[in-house]
């Protein structure tokens, strides 16, 4: 990677870090990235409102390759002392999406200056953290007949600058589930006069180990209790309303669907048995299974080898979720992981900051993929 380009995008990364914006609020971030591409390249820019992409045109009859970066931040405070620290309380780039976008911008500079044999699409996506960013953008795949799409995520616990790969499922499917129950109120001294949903909610929780047991599933299935909120803070009242918040997660989407169905059916049955007059279900932060295509991962292996980048084969998929799976349902592609270092702070923690050293690794890997036949 050209030194001047690396310096430019490292500075860009620090600017993005100082101006974090939450999912679907990334107005400044999107505009800054567009301005950077416009100022430093001749690429065509297509503004799609919440997101945008840039295009390098190699010509008719060429393959169409896409590379994606996300650019939203997290609702967290910046507590470590950084020269490029977040300027906004309660918002910080603690997942490294600033680095992903800077890497894609660096790749755009290199392709614009040196050319490519394929048509290259540089996709800058919002709202990965809430799971709806890729949903907004996925129509781009069909519209431009994208043959293959690639992305990377930085990850701690992996050797610095290594590219870590896995075929098939790379990250779990997941969603936030809220079970809401409404009975009827009563005086605390006469609970029999009302309908308290607490006991039904307790029975749902007690059933979770059975639903997620390895004996009943072919892959890992998780159901994490996030919050139990029942009744009011009033000792004279028997609870009449309650919410059970769960994160449900599975290696395979079909088993996530089965878990959801089991929980819904149990809740409905318990509601009927206990005289609970209302039970509803709502869902948030829905992520598909991120599944890598074998041929795309093989291209990653070959590109890394040619670039002298160490490849590590991952023994298992990551439990964390990624909305990139929407793209690999629509076309071939792969999500890979570049190591921050084996003892580096984990993403989504206060101590974390994206490692600028891996920008060049990402750009060189993408250049190798852009040159693949």
From TrEMBL:
Record key words, sorted: Coiled coil
Pfam families per record: M20_dimer, Peptidase_M20
Coiled-coil ranges per UniProt: 249-276
Presence of keyword Iron-sulfur: no
UniProt keyword annotation of S-adenosyl-L-methionine present: no
PANTHER family tied to this protein: CLAN MH, FAMILY M20, PEPTIDASE T-LIKE METALLOPEPTIDASE, PEPTIDASE M20 FAMILY MEMBER
Protein name listed in UniProt: Amidohydrolase
Taxon lineage: Bacteria, Bacillati, Bacillota, Bacilli, Bacillales
């Amino acid at each position: 990677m050209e030194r001047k380009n690396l310096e430019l995008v490292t500075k860009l990364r620090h600017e993005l870090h100082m101006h974090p914006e939450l999912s679907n609020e990334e107005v400044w971030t999107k505009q800054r990235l567009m301005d950077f591409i416009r100022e430093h390249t001749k690429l065509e820019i297509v503004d799609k409102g919440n997101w945008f992409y840039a295009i390098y045109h190699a010509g008719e009859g060429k393959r169409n390759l896409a590379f994606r970066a996300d650019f939203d931040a997290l609702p967290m405070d910046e507590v470590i002392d950084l020269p490029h620290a977040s300027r906004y309380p309660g918002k910080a780039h603690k997942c490294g999406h600033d680095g992903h976008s800077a890497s894609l911008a660096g790749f755009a500079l290199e392709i614009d200056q040196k050319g490519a044999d394929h048509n290259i699409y540089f996709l800058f996506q919002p709202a990965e953290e809430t799971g709806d960013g890729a949903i907004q953008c996925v129509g781009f795949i069909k519209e431009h007949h994208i043959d293959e799409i690639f992305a990377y995520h930085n990850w701690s616990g992996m050797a610095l600058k290594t590219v870590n790969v896995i075929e098939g499922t790379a990250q779990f499917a997941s969603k936030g589930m809220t079970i809401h129950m409404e009975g009827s109120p009563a005086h605390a001294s006469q609970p029999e006069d009302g309908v308290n949903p607490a006991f039904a909610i307790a029975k749902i929780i007690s059933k979770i180990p059975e639903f997620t047991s390895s004996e009943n599933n072919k892959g890992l299935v998780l159901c994490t209790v996030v919050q139990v909120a029942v009744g009011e803070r009033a000792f004279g009242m028997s609870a009449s309303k309650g919410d059970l918040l769960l994160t449900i997660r599975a290696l395979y989407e079909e088993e996530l669907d089965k878990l959801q169905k089991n929980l819904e059916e149990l809740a409905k049955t318990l509601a009927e048995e206990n005289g609970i007059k209302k039970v509803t279900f709502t869902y948030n932060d829905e992520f598909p299974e991120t599944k890598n295509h074998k041929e795309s991962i093989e291209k990653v292996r070959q590109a890394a080898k040619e670039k002298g980048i160490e490849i590590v084969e991952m023994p298992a998929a990551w439990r964390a979720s990624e909305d990139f799976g929407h793209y690999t349902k629509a076309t071939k592609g792969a999500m890979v992981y570049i190591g921050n270092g084996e003892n580096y702070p984990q993403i989504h923690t206060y101590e974390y900051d994206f490692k600028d050293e891996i920008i060049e690794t990402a750009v060189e890997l993408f250049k190798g993929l852009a040159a693949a036949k």
